[in-house]
Amino acid sequence: MAYKAFDLSGRVALVTGGNGGIGLAMAEAMAEAGADICIWGTSEAKNAAALEKLAAHGTKTAAMRCDVSDEAAVDRTFAETVERFGRVDGCFANAGVSSGKNAGFTEMTTEEWRRVMSINMDGAFYTLRAAARHMTERAANGDAFGRLVGTASLAAISGAARNEHYAATKGGLISMIRALSVELARHQITANAILPGWIETEMTERSFGWDKFAAAVKPRIPARRWGQPEDFGAIAVYIMSTASSYHTGDTFLIDGGYFLF
Ligand SMILES: NC(=O)c1ccc[n+]([C@@H]2O[C@H](COP(=O)([O-])OP(=O)(O)OC[C@H]3O[C@@H](n4cnc5c(N)ncnc54)[C@H](O)[C@@H]3O)[C@@H](O)[C@H]2O)c1
Ligand SMILES: O=C(O)C(=O)C[C@H](O)[C@H](O)CO
Fold first, then answer.
1. Which of 95, 181, 92 is closest to 131 using CA atoms?
2. Which residue has the CA at smallest separation from atom 39 of ligand 1?
3. Residue-wise over 31-69: b if at least 16 C-beta within 10 A, else e?
4. Distance between the two ends of the chain, CA-based, in angstroms?
5. The one catalytic residue among 3, 126, 166, 238
6. pLDDT grade, residue 216 (50/70/90)?
7. Which of 67, 75, 94 to mutate to test the pocket of ligand 1 (most atoms within 8 A of CB)?
8. Which residue(s) pair with 148 in the sheet?
9. Which residue of 69, 79, 111, 195 pairs with 253 in a disulfide if CB–CB is 3.0 to 4.6 A?
10. Which ligand 2 atom lies nearest to the CA of residue 197?
11. ipTM of the complex
12. Of 64, 115, 203, which is best to mutate to test ligand 1, by the most ligand atoms within 8 angstroms of its C-beta?
């Protein structure tokens, strides 16, 4: 018999960047555990394909178009999500972009720095702020429960050369979440960061290419394989569940034991 605390029936989870990769795998796992799921993404086609997968689990699902770097769009889409689902119990600020295929820090343009900041950092701020407003308001009305989650990265702590903008956003996200965990604990809202290592998704291919992985990264992973998006399902279910009520301000590093030597 399944551990009952992991039954997410009646809970609503929002996953930004939930139409592919890690976000979709987390959304699918939570749907399988019984949660209603709203995903946000920028591509209508990818949203539609993801929705089809999610619907197979039989819970209520929706996919909304939202660019998380657009403050007004985030507030508007969050309100729409609450209207559609009645509430948001868990908010996974997962949308992100990377770009490891550039010439290096001395050549980094301000435009590129701002692009990564505006999606990864500003986007997480807008998203988590909207969710925190909603969750604290509910707590004030006697319905206290909340899970704020940010998908950070191993890159925040590993020395992600030629990806300084990306590393900075993920380090910033971890620090923001740690501070939030302290501020919001009294409302029964937890805040945690997930730090994936090297995961086989479209983003990694775009940013680094498979060749770089095989040559430089794989030897540093004791598991000798890419992480898969599905490696993130269980942590999402755990965080959304009542089992994690006392677990806040943490960084969940899921990287196959990646080491530098
Ligand atoms: N793949 C990895 O190795 C890895 C490692 C560490 C951290 N991460 C982080 O995991 C998260 C998910 O990445 P992934 O690997 O699944 O890649 P992915 O490209 O499959 O997913 C990224 C998602 O973010 C969405 N997105 C991008 N810009 C957006 C915007 N402006 N507004 C809304 N959505 C937007 C994309 O549409 C996509 O759904 C990211 O935050 C990424 O930084 C990935
Ligand atoms: O975070 C990412 O974007 C990755 O693709 C992999 C790594 O965690 C990172 O870049 C490590 O330096």
1. 92
2. 17
3. bbbbbbbbbbbbeeebbeebbeebeebebebbbbebbbb
4. 43
5. 166
6. confident
7. 94
8. 91, 191
9. 195
10. 8
11. 0.96
12. 203
According to the 3-state scheme, what is the secondary structure of the chain? CCCHHHCCCCCEEEEECCCCHHHHHHHHHHHHCCCEEEEEECCHHHHHHHHHHHHCCCCCEEEEECCCCCHHHHHHHHHHHHHHHCCCCEEEECCCCCCCCCCCHHHCCHHHHHHHHHHHHHHHHHHHHHHHHHHHHHHHCCCCCEEEEEECCCHHHHCCCCCHHHHHHHHHHHHHHHHHHHHHHHHCEEEEEEEECCECCHHHHHHCCHHHHHHHHHHHCCCCCCECHHHHHHHHHHHHCHHHCCCCCCEEEECCCCCCC
The pair of structure tokens assigned to 231 is: 């490696």
- Quick: pLDDT tens for 222-238: 988 989 999 999 999 99
Ordered by where they begin, the domains of the chain are: 4-254 (3.40.50.720)
Mean pLDDT of the chain: 95
